[in-house]
Design goal:
Layout lengths: L11 H6 L3 H7 L3 H10 L4 H6 L3 E5 L5 E5 L1 H11 L21 H19 L9 H9 L3 E2 L9 E2 L1 H7 L3 H14 L11 H13 L2 E2 L9 E2 L1 H8 L14 E3 L4 E4 L4 H7 L4 E5 L4 E4 L2 H9 L4 H10 L14 H15 L6 E4 L5 H13 L3 E5 L4 E5 L3 H13 L1
Antiparallel strand pairs: 1-2, 3-4, 5-6, 7-8, 8-10, 9-10, 11-13, 12-13
Helix pairs in contact: 3-5, 13-15
Amino acid sequence: MGSTQRLQSIDLHGFLQGLSADTLDRLYVHPAACIAVFSSHEQAVGQLQRLRIWFAEELVGGHKGLRMSDVFKQGLRTALCGGGKEWYRPAPPAPDKHSRDITFLNLYAKERWEIILHFLVGSNVSDVSRKVMDLLQRAGLITPGESASSTPAITAAGFQFLLMDTTAQVWYFMLYYFKAIEDYPTDGLSPVQMEFLQDMREYGLVYQRKQKSKRYYPTRLAINFASGINQSAQVPDSDGFMVVETNYRVYAYTDSALHMAIVALFCEMQYRLPSMSVGLLTRESMQEAFRNGITADQVLQFMKMYAHRQMRKNNPCVPPTISDQIRLWQLERDRLRSSEGVLYNQFGSAQEFQVIRDYAQDIGVLLHSNPAKRSVVVTSGGHKDVRSFWKQHKQK
């Protein structure tokens, strides 16, 4: 039985490395882009070369050296010296009588983002716009319903997405958003930028009291996203709600419908109280999670990420009995794999069988061999080489 493809999430550097050389050069024309990349990037020569910031060249005397990209160097020098034309900086408006503090913005960002997650688990469908649904579909997280009125269905990638930490979710989601944008104006707030701002407002990356308000505030989601900071690998102690015991019981001290819906993806829920729910990890519940595309490592990471503060005092956080059993349950599903191959079984002697088997093993294309039946199975890709070798051997 084939394994499900793992959902991949990349960071800022991974995204930039996927851009073409021409796109990177055009990006580095802007001093603001140069200073942002330079400030956030780790000092790794290999990565800087792949980003076309440094180039390897031979110096006088045959020594190897590095040269900074002329385009990037000019843009960076301009930005460090305070020059260059800024992408956008409006004149300071009058003090905002509706200003918001950081606590409010963090709560707002959390509520807006959880609306999208609620939609994925099948609740609050009416709160998500058609634009968000289309983006989720482009990202491969949902599939459209059978009819226009039916609810979209979550995919295997969508189940994996739910178990990611928040920063990884935002990165994955926004990269698909950026791929749909064809214009990046730099002067003032054009209609395209205004539309972009309203989209960010719906995702919870910015707060704007009204659509026509003159002010907007970046939230913690936007700040972490832009700076490449991952502060969601483990949520604060106050937000941890899961307790996992060695008897496979899972206690969730939360009244969040979203959290309970995610826990139910891999647990058999038994009791639900106003502020606490009890579930049981069973072979059947985990096999259902595996069928949906969720992996054992993703379940364990979710348990560690949302572990109750009492569980975090233990090392390891999740009991080894639980983590080992979850991985064993996954191995049950993955123990059978299908591979295409070619069968060789018409050998005149045991010596001919051994020659072909040894050759296939040496070149790494042997899938199976049976000395009693004198049969050898090789990969489809290695069939041509084994056949040529067999013809040459028979001519000797």
